[in-house]
Each structure stands twice: as structure tokens, then as C-alpha cells.
Amino acid sequence: MKDAADIYIRQALKNWAASQHPSPNLRARLLLRAAYPAAQQVNIAGNKRRPFQIQKPLNGTADQFIRFYSLSWVWAIHFTYTPLTRVT
Amino acid sequence: MTTLTDRNLILRLRQGDFEALGELYDRHRHMVYRTALMITGDIQAADDLLQDVFLRLHRFAASFDVQRPLEPWLYRMTTNLAYDWVKSRNSLLGSLEDLADWLRGSGKNSPHESLEERDEWAQVQMAVSSLPLNQRVVVVLYYLNDLSVQDIADILEVPVGTVKSRLHYGRQALKKKLGFGSQALSDLQYERP
Fold this sequence. Notes:
The structure holds 2 protein chains of 2 kinds.
Chain A: H1 4-18, H2 26-35, H3 37-48, H4 51-54, H5 61-69, H6 72-81
Chain B: H1 6-14, H2 18-40, H3 43-59, H4 70-92, H5 96-104, H6 115-129, H7 133-144, H8 149-156, H9 160-178
Helix pairs in contact in B: 1-2, 2-3, 2-4, 3-4, 4-8, 6-9, 7-9, 8-9
């Protein structure tokens, strides 16, 4: 036996749910993702990238040299032990 | 295509027929979406869960036991993913303000309601959404999806007594929130509607 509250709750939930619909383009997106799972990964990676991450990384030989020479102890040693000579 | 059973569609899906996946989606999308929406209370999350459920169906189609019905599997997957979503959301946000905003329905992801519907039906929906997660899932499966207690126990992989207990306390809380008396609670019989 069900009381009035039981019936009311059930009907109210069903009425409310009947007005809720998924996005219309979900079907196409689902089939696309199922067919091309790699495309989804690219998409996710694209979403997570930020502009500063898109810049070309500084990994050339000269870039590595500059990065190395930027270390304070490197130029400290350099200026300490480089003999001073006249330039004129 | 419309005369094919779920079993036949899954067999087609195994062979790479994506239209079979589309057909399964068309058949079951409302059930999955509304269950996910009722548990999560978030439109975007319900959309995402709907996609995830069918993507998993696609992924696991090869190992799916076609002798068994599809719907319990869909319910189990939907509730599991919704559980995970709610738990991760609670752990990330966990603020009462967010819950209050959501209960007020002011968020952009709150479910669609017209003004006249809001008063009548949304009160119940909001009351359900305020239940503890375990009770909410049982209440949604029982009232919204018309599942029996035994079916719910099988889907959630918990004892029947646990389902009855959660349903009992969920009903009590709902009646209290909705202003019903508690005198009829003892009349409850857990039968399939």
C-alpha cells in the first residue's frame, strides 16, 4: 500500500524529469568521440594549454649556454679568475 | 534498425557499427540523463556523464554479456559515475555556499524549470537533492526509474536491507521537507510499482 506522499513524490519527480533533456548535439559528439578517441585527447590537451605554453621552448645550443652562464656562480668564477689585461 | 534488440545492437557495436551506438543512445539517453541529473543536480555534469556512460558501453562492448539486459548495466554505470562526480565535487568545493546557490537554482547549471513548474515539481526535486548521497541515489532509482528494491540492491551491489533502510530514511526526510505527516510511514511496503 502506498500513501499519498509516496504517489506525490513519484509523480512530481517524473513530471520534473520529463522537462529535462540532454543537449541536442551530444549524440554527434558521442559518436565522434567513440570513432576518434585520439581526437578527444588532442582536444583535452588543447583546452589545457595556455598561451605561454605555446611559445617555442628555449632549447637550442645558444639558449643552453645562456642559461648556464646565467648561473651566478658561473660568472662569479669567470670574473674572479679571468686575468685583467690592458685593453688600450 | 529500430526493430533490433539491445542485444543485437551491442553485437553490431562490437563489429564497429557506430550507428548501433547511436541507436542505443537514442533509446536510453533520457533514462541515463535524468538519473544523472537528479543525482548530481548539474546539467553540465549530467551531459558529461551521459557521454561517459555510452563511451564506456562502446569501450566494453566486447566484454559485455549480451545474455544479460542492458538497463541494469546502464543504471550501475550511471550511479557509479554520478557517485564519483559528487564526491570529487564535494572534495573540491565542499562549501555550503555552493550548495545553497545550487539549491536556490540560481546557478547557470541548474536544471531547466519554468516559473510555474518551479513551485510544484522543483520543490520535490530540490528536496531530493538535499538528501545524503546514498539515500538520494536509492530514492531516484526507486521513484524516478520505478525500480524494485531488489533491482536497486543488485545495481548498487548492497544488501536489500540496506536499500530499504536508505529508502526509509530518504522518504522520512522527503516527507518532512515537503510537509507531509509521518503517520503513513509505517504503511510502507517495498513493492515494485
